[in-house]
Amino acid sequence: MVQSMSINTLVTSRCSVVCGSNDEWRRNFGQVKELHILPGRGSLCLCSYGGRTTSFGAPCGISRPRSLRVQAGWLFKGSDKGSEFDASSEHSESANEDILMFFFELDLATRVQYALNLEQYDIAQQLRNKLTEVESEVIRLRENRRGSASKSEAQDMAISILRLRADLQNAVQSENYSLAAELRDEISKLEAKSLAASVKAQAYENAQYAFRLGQKVKHKKFGYRAVICGMDPVCCESKTWMDRANVEKLTRGPDQPFYQVLVDMHEDPNLLVAYVPEENLQAPDKQDTDRFDHPYASFLFYGMDAAGDFIPIKQLREKYSQPRHELPYDPLDEEDGKDA
């Protein structure tokens, strides 16, 4: 049995990912080769190393809390044409990492309940401790993305500005004008940062989205089919990513909703997960009930509804505070059923 395990790297490649392990795992099992996602099974995925296999997130005797760090990378790289803008410019490792962390959180919760059902209370407690640790980290990252941290940051800056204004008043009264000039410049910089943080926090609180979780969409420029699996009211990627994706050249810039989308593997098997601005997406002209394949779909959605869109699981809706979507009642459907 594995005594302790820490996943350091997950690199996604279609239906499988290559993963690295810590030194202790290497000593016990050798080099890990592949980690396969297994939809519909009791575990999230399966590690293959040599002739052995082990499930990722399986109950294990963890003697002490261990830090968890997940990094996502890609086996498929974009074009070597440098600055040329193509579909690969919108692929996002951070979006993929966010989804993998969500999988891991769900898997731990399932395993806690499984251990309780088997009356394995010690293992259940260890898993619950790890789940609490993961949930705390996920909540922190989620708050940073949703603007809660920005709101707190703006409040802290406002307090700092008040203190600096008091120092400025004292400097003026003591006729220390050089210090007063420095304080005035610092106050101006803080006011600009505070305003930006307040605007970002306000954007998260009043976000309006044109698309919903599970909705099938089409990319306006690249033409591929995709499904919405996450959303942010503004672009939350790094400056490096925004430069590569030419975000500043967008009509609405970075201050518009951006969506995590699963890309149909039949149309672009190298992309998998993309981070797309709202202005680059459109709903299909008619109901899209065609087959859609993606290795993450069975974890994030219950299946498809009558309109061809995917039905997000409850935990995914709660993650983004989105309501359940109900199809409008169509009396023609009932009449067609009677005729049949």
From TrEMBL:
Keywords: Hydrolase, Protease. InterPro entries: Clp_protease_adapter_ClpF, Hemimethylated_DNA-bd_dom, Hemimethylated_DNA-bd_sf, UVR_dom. GO terms for molecular function: DNA binding; peptidase activity. The keyword Metal-binding does not apply. Gene3D superfamilies: Hemimethylated DNA-binding domain. One of its GO terms (biological process) is proteolysis. Pfam families: UVR, YccV-like. Residues 208-312 form the Hemimethylated DNA-binding domain. This is Clp protease adapter protein ClpF, chloroplastic. It comes from Sesamum indicum (Oriental sesame).
